[in-house]
Amino acid sequence: MTRALAVALCLAVAACAPREWLLPKVGIDPPALREFPADFTPPISAETNQPMPGFGGGGGGVQRTPVIFIHGNTVSARYWLPARAHFLQAGYTRDELWSLGYGWDNVRYFDSNDLSVASVDRIVTSVMEHLSKKSGRRIHQVDIVAHSLGVTLVRQWMKQTNSWHKVRNFIGACGANDGVWAAWPDSRGQNRVVSFELAPNSPWLAQLNRGGETPGPTRYMTIYDGTGNYDVLFPPPFEHSSALEGAFNLAYNVERGGYYDHLELPREEGPLEAMLEFLRRAPEPLPMAEPPTLVRHGDTLRAEPAETRVHCTAGGDYPTLATPAETEVTLQAGKVTTCFVRDPRSELASPMARYVAGHAAPGSAPLTLRASPAGGIFEQPLTVTLKASDPAAAIVYTTGGGAVDSGSPLYTAPVHVMGPLRLSAVAIATDGRRSTPLTVEFDVSLEKVESMHTLQRQLDPATRERYEGRRKVGR
Amino acid sequence: MSRVIATLFLFVTCAAQAQAQDAVPQFARYMPLYPGMYFNGGYLQDARDGVFDQQGIKRDSAVPSAGGQTAFPEKTLLGAFSWHFPLFESYGLPFVSSRTHFARVGFSYTDTRTDGELGRFAADRSDDASTEADRLENEGSGNGDLTLEFGSYLVGSPASQWRERRSAPFAIVATTAGNLPYGAYNRDAPISAGSNTAWAQGRIGAHWQPWAGAFVDLGVAWREYFQNYDAAFGRQMPTQQGDDRFVDLSLAHRAANGLYLAAFATRREGEPNMYENPRFAPNPPAPGATTSMVPASGNYFDQGTSLDTVGVSLNWFVTQRWLAALHFVKPVAGQSGEFDLPYNEHTPAGCKVGAPNCTTAPAGSVHVDGLGPARSYSSGRLLLLVTHNFGLGDTFTCTGCER
Amino acid sequence: MHRLRTVRRTFCTAALLLLAAPAHAGIVFTPHLSEYGRLPPGQYTEATLILTEIEHIYDENGDKIQIGQPFVSAGASTDASLALLKYLWVGNVFRDTSVWYLKDHPQFCRVIGVLGYQQNTEQVGDRTRVFGAKAGGNGPGDAFGLCGVYGDEHRFGPLQFNGLLATTVKAPVGRYDTDAVLNIGTNYWSVIPQFAFHSKLWGRLWIDGTFAYQFNGDNDKPSFLGLTPTDIANWRNYEVNVAWKFTEHWFFDVGYGYRESVGPNRYEKVNISNEEPVNAEDNCILLGIDRNGPECNSTNRFFVQSKPGPYEDKGIDGTLLTAGIYYIYRTSSVFQIRVAQPIAGHGSQITALLDVYNAVPDNNGGYTRGNTTVAVDRPSKQYGVQEAAAVSASPFLELRFVYLFWAP
C-alpha cells in the first residue's frame, strides 16, 4: 500500500511538474505550437532564450498588410488560433497572419511590459524580414492586434523603439492602458514587475501615456468590455481603462450588446468582425511604395518626396494622424518639435523625429549627459534623473534596449524603472549638437532582494552579499 | 457552539507558538524578519527519565509513585513554517497596514514509549480486573498536534520600512496562538504524541540588539487550556490543565562570521491541574481477601507545576539561508503535579456500588503522580534545529532573466 | 445505558464525519466559489479548518435527536475539528500535442491531506471505557486524490458555463482503530466519479454544481462493536452553490447539498458484547428490549452477545444548507468563512439480535458471562456509526484560506 501510494505520488508530482522543465531532463523537446514555414526561423525569446513558438505563414501570398497577433500575460500564441481561423475565413491568407509567443507561458513567471519589449521587436522584425524576402518586396508595415498585457507591451515597444511607422493599424483588446485592479504598487514576489507597471496611476503608465496615447501615423482601435461586469480585470471604476484617447474605442459589450469576458472578447466572432471592419478602413492592397523621409533645412522641415506631408507638434507631445498635415514646418526657437512624415497615398510614414531650434552660445562646452543613479543593482523600482550640461538641451531616452534616436521618448520627468532594463539617452542641444549617447544598466532584481535579505544578512548586515548582477538565464 | 466559535476565533486570529520554536528559545526569535517564508525543522531527543517532584526534589524516575524507575524517552521531529508579511499595506487600515505581521504553523512527529515500572504496570494484564487497568497500552507515538500562531509587531517593524530595512535593533511583538489537538493520542497509554487538549495563548516578545552581533530576546506568555475530555491512563493525566505562564530569555553573540553562541533560560509556572475521577493508580492500597480497592470518585488537584531550564546553543550558518543549531537544555528546578487519591474498599470483591450486598468503606489514599503535562522532567534535552528562509514566499527567482 | 450513550455519541461523531467527508473531498462536494470554473493554469494551495460541536443527529425516521438523550445528561456533545490541506494543479499536459480532446481541454489534479480531532465530552468518554472502546480519534485522515478534465466553455448571452469530469479516489490511510468510537480514517476505499459545472450569469452570479456517484469499498474491520457498516452503500451526491459578487473583493454564497445512499448499508460483523455486566434496567433501556420482558424484571446483572448479522439499515440521506462570505486579498489569497446547517436527514439504524446471559462472580472481584441464557434473539435497535452511517443535525463552521504562491 505504502509503495503504491509512493509511486502514485511520484507520478502525480511528475505529471504536475512543468513539462518545459521536466521533459528536457529526459531528452524530450516539450510540445509547442510551431506552425511556421521551413524557411522561417523563429526569433529567440528575450525571456526564455528559446525559439519562440507560434504560427504564421503557410502560403497564399501577401496582398494585405500582414497581421501580427500579440498575446497577453501567461499565455502564448495558441491563444490567437480562433482569431486566425476567423481572419482566414475573411479572406486573409496564412502568409498574412502571424503570432509568436513571447514570455514564459506560465503563471509562475508573469510576463511584464518592459521585459518583453525586446521580444516584440524581434517578432515584428522577423516577420517583416521573412515576408520581404518571401514576397520580393520590402514590407514596411504590419497591423498588430494585441490583447491584455500585449496592448501596453506593444504600445511600449512602439514608443521605446520609435516604431509607430511600422504599425499601420493597432488594435488593443482589453488592455490595461489606465491600469488594472489586480495590479498593486506594493506587490511582492516573483511576479511583481508587471504589477508595478500596471497598477492604476502607476508612474510607469504615466510614462507610457505621456505625450499622447495615440502617437504617430498609426491608426488605433481599442475593444473592451465596458460594462465593468464581464471582464473581471476591469470592474468599476476601471471599466474604460482599455480606451485610448484619440483611438476608435469600442466598448463592445456596451455598444454591441455583448457579454464577453477578458479571454473571450478578442476571440469571438462579433468582436473579431469589428476588428476586421476597422482594418478594412485602411486602404489596401499592400502599398508598394517606399516610406517618405523628413529633411531639415535650417529651421525648416520638409518631407520627401514632395507629395508627402509633415505632421508636427511643438512642446513635447507626439503628433498623431489628427495633427494637421503640412508641406513644411518651421521650427520654433526654444521649443522641441516632434514630427513624422506620412504619404497619404501609400500611408507609409517615417519614424518619429525631434528637433530643437535655436543657436548655442559661442564657445560652449561639450554637451554631456549624466544619469543619477548611474545604473546599478536595486531591490526596488527607482527613479532615474537625467541631466544635460546644457539646460536648454532636450534629452531623449529609451528603455527598449536599442539605440536612442531623436524620436525616442522625450525626457520631461524622472524615469521610473520598474524592472531590469538598459536605459540609453542622448541630449540634443539647440544647435543640433548631440551628447555622447549615455547607456546605463539597471537591475531591479528579485535576486538582489533575495541576496540582500538572507537570514544570515538579517542577523549580520555586514555579511557579504552573494548577488553580483549576473542574472540567471531562464529555462 | 459558542465554545467552539470562541476556540475558532482564537485559532484563526491568534497564533500558537510553533513547536519547533517552543522546544527551545531560539535566539533572535522575536526579531522581525524580512517578509517571506521560513522553515524550521528539528530533531529533539530527551530521555525523560527523571522529574522534579511536587517538593522540587529531583527524582530519578519519571513517575516516582509507580515505584522503581520509569522513563518516557522521546524522539521528536519538529517542523514549522513561518511567514512574515505586511498586510493591507496600501489600504491605510489602522494598526494593520502600518506594521508587519507573521503567521506560523507547527507540526511534529514523536516517537515515545513508557519504559520501566509504569511500562510493566501497563503491560500487566492481571493487575486490576475491576478497572480498565488491565487494558493499558504503551504506544503513544505518532504525529503531534498542529499549532497556529499569528503575531503583529507593535514596535520595530513598520510596514513603510520593511523593504529597505537592514536591521531591527529593537522590536516588540504580540502574538496569539492556538493548539489544534490533531496529534495521535492513546487514551490507554501514559504518554502520547498528541495532547488531546486545545489551548490558546497570548505572548509578548521583545527583541533587542544592544550592539552589532548581540541579541537579547525576552518573552512572556500566558496559556489557557481547554478540557481534555478523555484524560489518559485512567485519568491520571489532568482533565483540566492549569493555566501556564512562560518566561524565556536568550542572549546571543556572534563569535565569528556566521557563528553564534547563545545562552538561554526559561521558566514555566502552571496553576494546579485538576484530575477528574481517576480510575486507578499504579500503587493502589492492598485489598483484603474478600475486598477490592476502587478509587473514590471526585475531582483532585495537584499544587501546580513549574520548570526552570537553562541552556546553550551553537548556531552556524551553513549557507546564508541555512542556519544549523545545536541546543542543549538543562532543567535546573521544577515542580511536578502530584495528588492524593482516596480509595474505597468494596466488599465483596468486585461488587458494584448499589448492588445488593455490596458495601463500601474508605480505605485511605495513595499518592499519585499526575501524568502528561503534570510532569516536569529533570532530564536534559538535545535539539538539532535547522532554519531556512525561502525568501519572498516563492521559489522561482528568475524574474525577467536574460535581457 | 452506557452503551446507548456510547452508541449515540458515536453516532454523533459519525455524523461529524459525514460532514467532514464532503470537506475532505474538496473539489467533489460542498463546492466553493468558482470551484468548477476553468481556473488559470497554475498551482493552488488551500487550508480549510472545520469546527463543529455536534449536539443533534437524525435517526432512521428523520427525527432530530439530541445526543444521548435521555441517557446522557444534557449538554454533552461531540467536539471535532478537521484541517484539510489541499494542493491543486491546473494545466494541460497535452497542450500543443495532437492528443484528441485533451490537447485543448485543461486538466487538473488535486491531493488532499487530512488531520483531525474528534472527541466526545467526558460523560460519554467515561462510558466508553466500560465497553473497552476509545472515545476519541485524533490524527491523520484518509488521503484523497483527484484528477479531471475541463469541458468546453459555452456562452448563451449573459450566461457562460463549462462542465468538468473528474474522479476522486479516497485511500484509507487515515488513523483507524477498531476499538474506537470515533475514527478519522474510514478503512475503506472510495472511488468517486463526478460531473460538475460552473456558470456565470451577468458576470455577477456564479453558480457551481455537481453530481457525484461514490462507489464505496468494503470495510472488513468495522469499528466499535461492529456498528460501522462492513458493506457500505454507494452514495449519490448533489451539490449546488450560488455566489454573488458584490465587488472584486467580496462575495457571498449560499449552497445546497444532498447526499443519499443507494440501497442499504450492511452490517456483517456486529459484536455487541459488554466487558462489564450492566444492570437490568440499563440493559433493557440500552438495548431497546421490551421493558416488560423477564430480563428487565430483575435486579441481576447481565451480559449480552449479539448475533453478528448480517443486518441492513434503510439507507441514509442528508440535506445541508450553507452560507458563507469570501474576501479576496490582492489576487493571491482568499479568506472564506462558511456555516453549514443540516436541515433534514435519515441516519442508519439496524435491529440487532441479542442473546442475554447471566453474570457470574468470578471470585476475583469481577464477573464473567454465565452459561444461562436469559433471553435469546432479543431485537435491539442500534445506531450505525461513523461517516458511512450517521447523519449529523448540527451545524459546522468552515474557515478556508486559499493561497496562490505565484500571484503578485
- Classify the beta-strand content of chain B into a percent band: over 45%
CA(first)-CA(last) distance of chain B? 59 Å
Instruction: Give the low-confidence spans of chain B.
Output: 1-21, 393-403
Taking the sheet with the most strands of chain B, its summary is: 12 strands, antiparallel, barrel
Residues in β-strands, percent of chain A = 15-25%
Walk me through this protein's architecture.
The complex is a heterotrimer of chains A (475), B (403) and C (408). Chain A is α/β, with parallel strands linked by helices and 475 residues long. Chain A has helices at residues 2-16, 19-25, 81-89, 113-135, 149-160, 192-198, 203-209, 252-255, 269-280, 446-452, 455-459, and strands at residues 34-35, 54-56, 67-70, 97-100, 142-147, 167-173, 219-224, 248-251, 293-297, 300-304, 309-314, 325-326, 328-330, 336-342, 353-356, 369-372, 376-378, 382-388, 394-398, 415-417, 421-428, 438-444. In chain A, 57% of the residues are buried. The model of chain A has no long low-confidence stretch (mean pLDDT 90). Chain B is mainly β and 403 residues long. In chain B, strand 13 and strand 14 form a beta hairpin. The longest helix of chain B is centred in the first third of the chain and has 12 residues, at 2-13. Chain B starts with a helix and ends in a 14-residue tail after the last strand. Residues 1-21 and 393-403 of chain B have low confidence and may be disordered. Chain C is mainly beta and 408 residues long. Chain C is built from three helices and 21 strands. Chain C has helices at residues 2-25, 122-130, 280-287, and strands at residues 42-54, 56-58, 64-66, 78-91, 107-120, 139-140, 143-156, 159-171, 190-201, 205-216, 234-245, 250-262, 266-267, 278-279, 301-306, 311-312, 317-329, 333-346, 349-361, 367-383, 396-403. In chain C, the strands form four sheets. In chain C, strands 1-4-5-7-8-9-10-11-12-17-18-21 form a twelve-stranded antiparallel beta barrel. Chain C has a four-stranded antiparallel beta sheet with strand order 14-15-19-20. A two-stranded antiparallel ribbon of chain C has the order 2-3. In chain C, a hairpin with a 3-residue loop joins strand 9 (190-201) and strand 10 (205-216). In chain C, helix 1 (2-25) packs across helix 2 (122-130). The termini of chain C are far apart. The A-C interface holds A 1, 5, 8-9, 12, 15-16, 19, 31-33, 53, 74, 78, 106-108, 110, 181-184, 187-192, 194-195, 227, 229-230, 232, 235, 259-261, 264 and C 40-43, 89, 91, 93-97, 109, 111, 143, 145, 153, 155, 157-158, 160, 171, 173, 200, 202-204, 247-248, 330-331, 405-408.
